[in-house]
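Appendix B, example 12.
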Amino acid sequence: MPRPCRRRPARAFTLIELLVVIAIIAVLVGLLLPAVQKVREAAARGTCQNNLKQLGVALHNYHDTFGKFPPENTHINNSPRCNWLALLFPYFEQPFRATELAPPTTYGPGLNAPSGSHVRNDAVGNDYVAKLLVCPSDGRKTTGTFGLGNYLAVNAPNTDQRDSHNRNVQGVFAYWGHFTDGTRTTAVWDFVVTLPSITDGTSTTLMVGERPSYPDLAAAGGSFSGFWGYNELDSAMGLPNSRLWMAARNPAGGPCPSGNQWFGPGDPANGCDAHHYWSKHPGGGNWAFADGSVRFLSYNTPTSTQAALATRAGGEVVRVD
């Protein structure tokens, strides 16, 4: 009678062998993680470029409809949802209902404002989140009270459009109405930008750039920055910007640097960087140009080139690689 076969019991891993396997897996993960992060950032950067491309198309569709680009704001005050993005909503398939507001009586009755001078998009509230306005690399989309955005219209260099007696209108965007003197008693309503008025060339004139939102600037002496419905330093900014409206101090408690705030690297933990264009993409940021193209500019772009790109009729000769 044959004997039954006896199976030899499977040999278990020794502790040393198990540690070697774990070490090999850790090394492989360490090698793969940077590659995965690069792929994810490339995808986020591509989505961001597509967002800007759609905004560029929307701006051109607005121009086709009205024969001009939208103003930075239709209201002399920085009133919510009266800005260029709120007016642009129907051109990237977002809710829109125009409500005409009364002119601000604090500056005097009427201010010679024509019909349509103070238009607000009342189809949405301040907390509305529009996916197109947020770059995937930038993070938060809302403060809970305000919907955030990461794309800012480009004002002329050193423009303080938060004070609407400033009539620097050499960029594609500015307030439609401006006070003619420091007393703020007389206003004119004359700001119109058309494609033919961009005499520097649409391919070398900036329209929209990136800047991450800052949902909480309390530690920096501010409140927040990045609500798509407000104006300067929320949805529009000069290049360079020379005003410090959003934050007063850096994380170490020192004052934010004064003077020209150029396009350059930033830190999401430093509220001072809310005052200039930057992105969370390595090495630079995406920009929409007046011809509708989207290009990535390096932080090494000379400041003279940056300023020239921000004007539409400055007569500068600029080359953008």
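The beta strands are 98-100, 119-121, 151-155, 177-179, 187-189, 206-210, 236-238, 284-289, 294-298. Residues 15-66 form the longest helix (52 residues).
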